[in-house]
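seq as requested:
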Amino acid sequence: MVSSITPFSRCRRALSHLEVSHCLTTQEINRLTNDELHELLVLSGRTLFELRELRLAGDSKGDAPELLVMIDTLFFIDRQRAFPLTPELCLERLSSLLSCASGKSGKRLRASLVSNVIRFLQRCTDPAVHILQDVLLQLLNNDVTRSATPSWKEVYIRLAITGCLLPENIGKVQSFGKDFSSSSPIFSDEFGLVCSWPVGTKLDWAGLFLDDDVDDTQIIPARDPLWDVIEQCPGYGGFAKKALQVAAQRLTEIHNGALPYRADGAFDGAEIAALDRASRYALRRDEEWGHAVMMRLLPDASVAPTSAKTAPSQALAFGLAKAIATFPTPEAITALREANRVVRHAALAKRLRRELGAAERELPFWPERALRIAAHKKLNRTQRATLINALEGSFYTSNRFTFDHWRYLSQRYPGVLSLFESLVWRVTINQKKTVSFIPRFHEDEVFGIECLDSSGKCVEPFPDTAMVDLWHPSEADEEERQAWQHYVVKRRLKQPFRQIWRECFTAPDSSTPSPYPYQMLSVKPFAGLARKQGWVNDRDGCYYRLFGPLRLVLELSDRVVPGSTGVVEIKMLKLFESTHSGFRPISFVEIPTRLASEMLRCVDLLVSVATIAEKASVSLSPAERTRRESAAMFLAHGRTASAMTQLRRDALEKLFEGYDARIVFDGHYVRLEDFAIHLGSSVVFHKGERVDFNIPDQPRSAQVPWLPYDEALLERIVMILMVIREQVK
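struct tokens:
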């Protein structure tokens, strides 16, 4: 006979009688109604209390991991649904939590209880209603929910709960927050501001500081939860400006000797947290006053006033660097670069360098800010390099300007003119017709612009509403790519980065889940380059890299830990998109063509470097090497050579066109008489035998001819050809 007991009844029995056999699966819990879920959550509080009492009494029945997992799942799904709670429902839940708040408890239980209290009050339609007063007073005065020495987080959480009390009940709660007034004046100012906010804003503010087991890899930097709360907080901008200026002045006095210096003693933990929030506010809003204060604050926080290899506040310096990497501005990056120059603390220097690279990679996602680097026509080397990186990084974004605004930016920032004139741009008219062009600017009395196509002819003027972005070869057909390549070679045009000769990759579909099946990588060069390029090792056999709201994951056959050597194999390449509930898997065909190509180009760079390095140092069986070499033949656009090798061949063919009839291209090789040079490695063969080939040392000006793009391997192949040609004349 089939049992007719419902999942709700089974779960209720499991919670009431501690019967593990009736626990529900996640799928079954998902099918519960909101009313059923609420009733089970209320019952869970009493179950948790009973399990704890059994464990304290030494009863083995208190060890029920299946029940604890099910209760955690109930709370998790309830947080996902986040349906509103009436004061009556909220009272039932808070009373259930209060039943757990008795007897002995640890820090983890306290954090779990206060987290759920804040969440329930946030969802309550009227958290300051009369019927909740008694249970709130009991929670605030309970030994479990109250710490003897509260941290700044606990102070804000208690402040939010206290805000739900009626005026006549506030005096019944033990005072808090006074301990920070003398030791943490910056935090004390922030606390005073928060006290003036309405109840709902206080609860949202406290919700930022809940001690939950949150996976940091699920947070996209540009989607800062702090911002959503601060936007509705009156007066926060004034506090942020004052706090950062006070902090900068304190550091100035320490460096001048007006205040005593103590390593990592300039600010306490509460002040550092408040300054971190203030800096994120200033950087996110791109406040003009924040530019000057950041230039003072970050370098001074990173280096001691003496010759010691310490810092006034490592935590503040790292927090500011992290904020800059999240919301970069050219001025803040300059401050971070200066801090990186003066810092003497080895560990802090390593962190600052890492965040500097992250900030420079993030800057292209803020194009209007990036162009401020070019406010003056003459740029130094660092400014030019940063601007070039920002322009190249725009391939990862979907940033576009109207033609009118693009022309305005060109006129406003004269430092970009020479760069703009060396790049190909694309204009989209009426969301259908696309035209590629290279601009030519005229800075006479009247600022003018003319647009040239790949044949060098002027094109018709574009409407002001047409959309402009950088041209990407993956979005053009072969004929258009070839036309622009001929344009570059004919005019010897020097591009600031590889654009026209950029590698293109086709996005894999469901039939080809990984573009690099069974590819073997040498761990040491792979891990080093991955870290430099911004990939993050999650220590679980995966590397991931963020591209705005997208997350590219490279799944490996084994974990890679610091100091690892040997070989790993690529298992899968996955793509995820950020949502409010985490990351959801998506296909490469769902994202713009240029972005898919750029992502695969990043992976191809890792694979190329690690594979080449590994061949010379790792011994593999014949079968393993055959499989690896077969996998290495997977190439973009279905070609028989790698994307980089094929592009190198195209460039050399155009470069030597009509130069010497003896130079012949044959598959992976370029041949000259009895010599053959491999296009993928520059290895030289003479009459079929490999030979060592050394290029004579010469002045660089006499050594390197014009090349369509900068690449060490391309340069070496050209020089080898030139030397061989002299030898076989």
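The mean pLDDT is 82.
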